[in-house]
Amino acid sequence: MGVRKKLFLLCGLAILFTSCGKKSGAEKAREAREAYAKGVKLFHQGDYGGAIEYLRKAEGGMAYLSPDHIRDLKFKLALSLYKEEKYEDAILEFEDYITYYPTAPNIELAYLYLINSYLKISPDPWRDQSYTHKAIEVAQKFLQMFPDSKYRPQIEELIDKAKRKLVKHHYLIAKFYEEYGYHYPAAVRFEYLLLTYPNLINTQDLYFHYIKNLLLVPQYARQKEEYWKKKIDELKEELSKGKDKSYIQRRIEFYRSQIERWKRIAQNSLQKAQENLKQYKERFGEDRYYKLLLKLKKEVINS
Fold first, then answer.
1. The Outer membrane lipoprotein BamD-like domain covers which part of the protein (predicted)?
2. Domain map of the chain by residue range?
3. Which of 7, 146, 237, 250 is the most interior residue, by most CB within 10 Å?
């Protein structure tokens, strides 16, 4: 066989194999519809892992599915991911579903599972609670959009659950500050809890720790004052070496303002402690906590 004939033969075979390997639009449509049908069947059988596999395949051929099938696919895929505890992926799918199908018949259910998904990936109370905040944000949006929803009780329960987690988060941080002697930030955290979550806290316990840390703020403030005084002394030494006087003088003035700031914080905290101590007595009486606070107050005043 001549070289020219061989080339023609090879070209013909290449065209043949290429055309054979390439699927027609009809074949792609059939495969997409079959994958969708299989995925839906597995979904209803409770085989969510299998449903994900086939719904993903069908998703690759969405151009060959009807709008109603695509909408159904997206919801069942999101819910299957949730059931398989793949909450991060479920969040992405539910968010897409809510964005593209805001009037879908099961949109309220999509919101419910989205909120649940955020809470599922929210870490323990010691760590960042961004997902908990997000769950509350979406839940409150839901209540505004669907005030008469049959899912309202469940959404309100999720909000309560999320808020209780935030309460624990702030309480643990406040206690951490307290135990390590950071009394001012501890007092700020306890005050935040008292003002923000009055119905979700042990008010008596919070009041005790709040007043206790307010009474100890002057001690904390003195440490801060000493810190800034040392910084001033360091700068004065720099001045004696002939360094840039204008820059150093500005820094000294700033450090002095910090000393005055902490003096004001100490004074205001002590005043707040005395006011809240009276309120504590009115609400809870002269219990053992009250007596401990009175003792601490005398120690602070006499120190």
1. 30-223
2. 27-84, 181-302
3. 146
